[in-house]
């Protein structure tokens, strides 16, 4: 069975009270529409069409890496009209259209596959997914006669008896391509000024086509995102689902309710995640790592046996095996921290390579630098990489010792095994195995403190006489 998927994403989403399209609001750091696209792309359909409004370039940007085709609904005339615009992109297609909304991020590929299987096995012309819903809601009610699906009644059009029906419409349809002509028979709803796709059920049923509804999934999986509250609830559900999968893969959490993990992140076994940790983007964390509280890791690769201490930020960088980072460290984009290196308290690294077993333990800024192995960077060291016009590179070779409170003015190279005296300002290359010192000679003035104290006493006596 050939399948073409159509995602309807042209809705205004007014209940979100936002200038951002509702399908671009994020759950666990990822836009809602990307979750839906990920689910349908796993079906390997012949066509994947996203229906958007005329000025939805931001949605196109969010899906630019996805194998999808866009169709524009020129006016907001409802879901029936939206599907018409997609059908125009499918001329000559012979198969089944899988139609779903772009605001259902929790739908799983397994549910969609099971649905298509039931549609095919029962030789239906048109099928939909339904689910049971309790309490007050705005979902369309499933109307059956003798157990057979006859129609869908929207909540706003339902009478009191129909509102008691628990089975509701998910908005996910399987429609054989030869039924798409029925879209022309949908009449505009005068209350809303829209063409309801739900009306195709009653039209198909009256024409004698075989239609069916299958209760699959659950309320949470099939719920649409129409408000900030629903977005928040979906985020909690997604977080718990991600954490559960991590636990199944051998990851431990001290407090799973306080963490944030991207659905695209991967974490190795025997890694321990402490509370209030944010792991974002396509971050990969290896085995046997410890990530302490209040840490944020963004689109980075962390090796095995790495310790990331409290309140550390790592962005778009790589940390190799057995390194120790933090606490209060900031690894900025484009950095590489090699094996067994130590980046300590209040150290900032920017677009630099830190060699194996190198230590920068305290109060240091390293930017646009390449630092070799077994280097000791003393507290308060700064690589001064910006000259007012451009960034310049600092090169520090293996086994160098940098004394505390040193300023290294790039571009400069410090040769292997060299020493830099504490408090030095280095403006020229330092040869290998040499000592570089840049500071004035210390001068001691004998008895200076005694003279200062006597002068202070004399001033106080003078001041007291003037006050009388």
Defining key terms:
alpha/beta, Spore Coat Polysaccharide Biosynthesis Protein SpsA, Chain A, UDP N-Acetylglucosamine Acyltransferase, domain 1, eleven-stranded parallel β-sheet, nine-stranded parallel β-sheet, 8 helices, 41 strands, 19% helix, elongated
Description:
The chain is of the alpha/beta class and 468 residues long. It has 2 domains: 3-222, Spore Coat Polysaccharide Biosynthesis Protein SpsA, Chain A, CATH 3.90.550; 248-436, Hexapeptide repeat proteins (UDP N-Acetylglucosamine Acyltransferase, domain 1, 3 Solenoid), CATH 2.160.10. 19% of the residues lie in helices and 28% in strands. The chain is built from 8 helices and 41 strands. The strands form 7 sheets. The protein has an 11-stranded parallel beta sheet, covered by helices on one side. Strand 2 and strand 3 (30-31) form a beta hairpin. It is elongated. The chain starts with a strand and ends with a helix. The model has no long low-confidence stretch (mean pLDDT 94).
